[in-house]
Design goal:
Elements lengths: L1 H40 L9 H10 L2 E16 L5 E16 L8 E8 L16 E7 L4 E2 L6 E3 L5 H6 L6
Parallel strand pairs: 3-5
Antiparallel strand pairs: 1-2, 1-4, 2-3, 4-5, 4-6
Amino acid sequence: MQLLARKSKTKIYRAAAKRRVLNRTMYQPILLLVAMAIVSCMADCGDNLSASEFHQVYCESDIVFRGTATGGHSATSMDEDQNWIVTTSASFNAEEVYKGSPSNPQHINIYRVWTQGSPCGSTAFPFSDDGIFIFANNNGNGYIMEACMRAFAWGCIPQSIKDSLPLSCN
């Protein structure tokens, strides 16, 4: 009887150890996503908007500004279809607001949600020493940035577009 009890306890301990290993391995994809996001933040300009696309996105946005990131965080989760979801919240100090009237230009919060399978990368904001140019919309609770082509390193914006800011929307 004691031998059966001992074997039963051993099975329970092994099962618990196996669950701990599975829990640890579940975090590995999350760490991989975070590492990929950090590395891709240091990428070059990559895709950019054409002048007409830039004008269209500018006019559709509630706020357009160039700013410096002052803080932020991301959370990673998984939906019921096992797709990764990355939710990012970042605070910016607006160096120049081209469209919109934020209540506090020194503290603009921008939210972005990326879902695995999206045609865009998971990186929310590019790395830039000279500021980030952002298009966002106000949903009533704050500023939301679409996942694709809404944040650019200031150095990646063509000079002709910089010279024409702020744009007029008819």
